[in-house]
Amino acid sequence: MALIHCDFFSEVLDISTAMYVILPQPTQGQIGLKGRSFGTKHPVLYLLHGLSDDHTIWLRRTSIERYVAPLGLAVVMPAVNRSFYTDMERGYRYWTFISQELPEIARSFFPLSGEREENFVAGLSMGGYGAFKLALRHPEKFAAAASLSGALDIVSRVRDEARQPEFENIFGDPQKLIGSDNDLFHLAQKVAKSTGPKPLLYQCCGTEDFLYPDNIRFRDFFRRLPLALTYEEEPGTHEWGYWDRKIQRVLEWLPLRKDSQPVTGHP
Asked: Which parts pass through the membrane (predicted)?
């Protein structure tokens, strides 16, 4: 695998920002690791961070590079600060950045596939919310999305009085959040009623996680819709041991194409 720390300028944010990118490399002689690639344009997973983290966190807390090496899967890990992947009421346009500008920039820099069936998104906590929002607002762009301990019931989250000023800076008037394009429950209903493509969703949460009730509400609501959801739970809290295990499960679950012949390296 190739690991690239990419600093670049965002026209949408009007600031310099950063992302880590993992690119497939076919290798045989690398000790303890065999990489593969399936062609010139790589399938890609956009891997999103949580509220208190940044673009470095998945590499620092998990073995994501090792996990994706045999899959021929590229991984893009962007930085979005504490934005909830939203065009903030008082702040930066992180939704426009993550949903439009970032994929275009990443594909201009690196050989990443633009095909829907080879584009996926996953994230933890705030990033789980962002992953589902990307897939549900742009089902024509993403074949699958995964939420690990996601903050999926954002309407309930904004009622937290301790964080209300911050949430108002992000979302504005909390009353206007219900039924908006930042409300995952509303987005799920829209996708269910549409005649367009439907993304596959994977959701997991530890039963001792403080976001577990939010996840149960979303699961129960989603199961009433004609959409595909894989839901898993097990004992666990909001911590990296759990997410390191579950990202491996996500990679097993992803609908990666199996019809291509891998390119293999030489010792």
From this structure: none
Q: To which residue do tokens 């819709």 refer?
A: 225
Burial class (CB in 10 A: 0-12, 13-18, 19+), 224: exposed
Q: Give me the sheet containing 44-48, strands edge to edge.
A: 2-10, 15-23, 74-78, 44-48, 119-124, 144-148, 200-206, 229-234
Range of the domain at 49: 2-253
With CA atoms as reference, report the closest residue to 192 among 153, 224, 232, 220: 224
Closest to 43 (Cα-Cα) out of 22, 59, 62 = 22
Each residue's pLDDT tens digit, 175-234: 899 999 999 999 999 999 999 999 999 999 999 999 999 999 999 999 999 999 999 999
- CATH number of the structural domain spanning residue 176: 3.40.50.1820
DSSP 8-class letter at 149: S
